[in-house]
Design brief:
2 copies of one chain form a homodimer. Chain A is of the alpha/beta class and 409 residues long. In chain A, 19% of the residues lie in helices and 32% in strands. Chain A is built from 7 helices and 28 strands.
Chain lengths: 409, 409
């Protein structure tokens, strides 16, 4: 692989976007109960005011604020109680100056009233109520539309639906909503040495990690995994498998076979069977250099040849395909944990470094401790809470330098 | 509600734990493919070394390190190539001093070899190989067991299974594993003013948010929601519903009816039908004061009467029941984002304050901006990224004071 042709992470991302911009992102309607963790595919405007009527926020007496102007802890104002509002019922009456009505928390404010004084500041004297507090207009009241106004944009396209969004949608009576259809992904893991994890390796063989780990990564993101398969480094079988995967997939991942060895067929096959074909031949990223990206215009499929080493494969998946989901579906980029690096950490000239780290609470802040390991070691990732990226123009990090840690969520 | 009887968050948590410690947490065996996001219910020891044999980490020549001691960029050492290792095959030969064998990345190291020199630092001269680099013992080699040693504890009980854990389990050939069975929860939402969200409210009525929002919260945690229902404030119907829920549930949530109004029946019913019954009558938390907690020894059920206001209900759920899951299943507590508060924020004497915040990147760090809103407003939570807790002994926060933000994940 000639180093000059290698793309930076940013270049590779731009090229991916320039191709997938022709995708028509599909939407589907789901029931509210099924919408959790889906991504909203459209802006939601409030169909009604929430609340739909002026409500009391306390147990107390609804009244006209001006009537209480002279009231205080020592000298009450006396108002005539002309009724009681029941929860869930229309207030059904109008008050005039000098009058009040009992309203429970959440109860509807009667016509004419503009404040509610808490029961703790009142005294019932039969037909009259002594009010010991001067209320400002609006005190103790949630006005119609104060939470959400009818017609207001209240949830934007690209919102990840959390429990509170489920709640807000329920409050608006929105019982079904548009969400993005996940991207379809096929995962092919290749390597003569690989065996299905359920089998016992003979000398020279190792169990296939990538089809399992990448599938789990894809499922965490907005992908539907439509197939996983394990193949030997056999050019014609690989070519057939990739061709077949192109049809039903938005993205085809081939892990392994992306280096420049004699049995590394990914680049060759992508050159052969896709048009315009390969657009990135190597990434300026450590780990992750042997990454091949291509585009097949006819089937509108993105192809990604990932390194065979599990850590490298997972990091490239995260940085290119996880990132692609966030970008396409307009998700808010994830928050990163500010921390300080626990030791000097060299960079790699001309390559960005993706370094797994463990976070430890250290005094008032977090310390990010690099988890080192040879590139094939999956325990590098099981011991890590997240990762940092050292920019390709940076010589390295000095102990205690601030870093931003992206969690493996 | 008498303020003196109110529990702090910590007191309530301790009391909850003291009761639920008699729960026998159930385990179940799931297939590896189904284990993502489940919680490991047992320690996993490595059944085999990973890798199971000494492997090359580069394409190059396997040799005896000592043989290359004199090699350098200008003056090579000449070794006799006695074979080639194929991927996935036993090396099947032994090398002696003066010999080398070609090994691809991931290939098995032949007997006798203890280092691999990259092909870039070698030159093939027919039967002999010129080696231009002095190799240290172990260079270019991943030793058997270097990633994971046979018998080593490599995943602990309480591990949340992420894609990398799926990968590590696959690498070990662990195709099924013990995970905790989620806790069973029943959710009852009560209020005369509440209608199912699919209906149109008449004056005085509002749509039920809590059974939807709390269900979604429970599903994010290790709970299985076995029922949700909406009931009016009718003592006998509520009592029947709670009694029925006790049988099949580990936790019964009743939202609404937990204040001291005449139609607030939760505390009374819990006192009537459970033994030893109510142990917390009010929380020193804002929002969340009207929270009633109880225990029914016979059915081994935790009962939680939550405030009817959605924001308060969701926060108390998070702080008591979400916390309970993390604690019971020994999960690592979630990471919090260090930030600075964007404005002065008063505390509430004698009560901890749970304040929703929005995070903004502000120079090098995050600024946490409080999202204010009356307690019934669900948009307080949809606009927030997370929350902070102001300790009940703290008068408040000064602008720019450091805070830790717990994300609503």
């Amino acid at each position: 692989m000639k180093l000059l042709k290698v793309d930076s992470l940013e270049q590779a991302r731009e090229k991916i976007l320039s191709h997938v911009k022709s995708w028509h992102l599909k939407k589907e309607i789901v029931m509210l109960e099924m919408a959790r963790e889906r991504i909203l595919a459209g802006d939601i405007y409030a169909p009604d005011d929430i609340p739909s009527f002026d409500r009391s926020t306390v147990d107390g007496y609804a009244l006209i604020a001006l009537d209480t102007a002279a009231a205080g802890e020592a000298i009450p104002v006396y108002l005539k109680q002309v009724g009681t509002v029941s929860m869930g019922e229309p207030a059904g009456l109008t008050i005039r100056s000098g009058e009040c009505v009992y309203v429970p928390t959440g109860g509807m404010l009667p016509e004419g009233a503009n404040a509610v004084v808490m029961i703790e500041h009142c005294e019932s004297l039969g037909a009259n109520i002594a009010v010991y507090e001067a209320a400002a207009p609006g005190a103790g009241v949630a006005l119609a539309g104060e939470d959400v106004k009818k017609g207001q944009l209240f949830l934007c396209q690209g919102t990840l639906i959390r429990p509170q969004e489920i709640g807000a949608l329920a409050a608006s009576g929105i019982m079904s909503l548009p969400v993005f259809v996940p991207l379809k992904i096929s995962i092919i893991s290749t390597g003569d040495e690989l065996i299905p994890p359920g089998q016992s390796p003979r000398p020279g063989e190792i169990r296939d990690i990538n089809s399992y780990a990448l599938k789990a990564q894809a499922e965490k993101r907005a992908f539907t995994v439509i197939s996983t398969q394990l193949l030997p480094d056999d050019e014609s079988r690989l070519e057939t498998a990739i061709k077949e995967a192109l049809d039903g997939s938005d993205v085809v991942i081939i892990s392994g076979g992306s280096s420049q060895g004699e049995k590394d067929y990914t680049e060759k096959i992508m050159d052969n069977i896709t048009r315009p074909g390969v657009f990135t031949r190597g990434l300026a990223l450590k780990p992750g250099k042997p990454t091949i990206l291509g585009w097949d215009e006819e089937s509108q499929t993105l192809l990604a040849g990932l390194p065979g080493h599990p850590v490298a494969a997972m990091m490239v998946f995260e940085l290119l395909l996880g990132w692609l989901c966030d970008n396409l579906f307009e998700l808010t980029p994830p928050f990163q944990i500010p921390a300080r690096i626990s030791c000097n950490l060299p960079g790699t000239p001309g390559r960005a470094v993706c370094q797994p780290v463990k976070l430890r609470m250290d005094g008032e802040g977090y310390s990010a401790e690099p988890v080192f390991g040879k590139s094939g070691m999956i325990t590098t990732l099981t011991q890590a809470d997240g990762y940092i990226i050292i920019d390709l123009n940076k010589e390295g990090l000095k102990k205690d330098e601030p870093v931003k840690v992206q969690l493996f969520n």
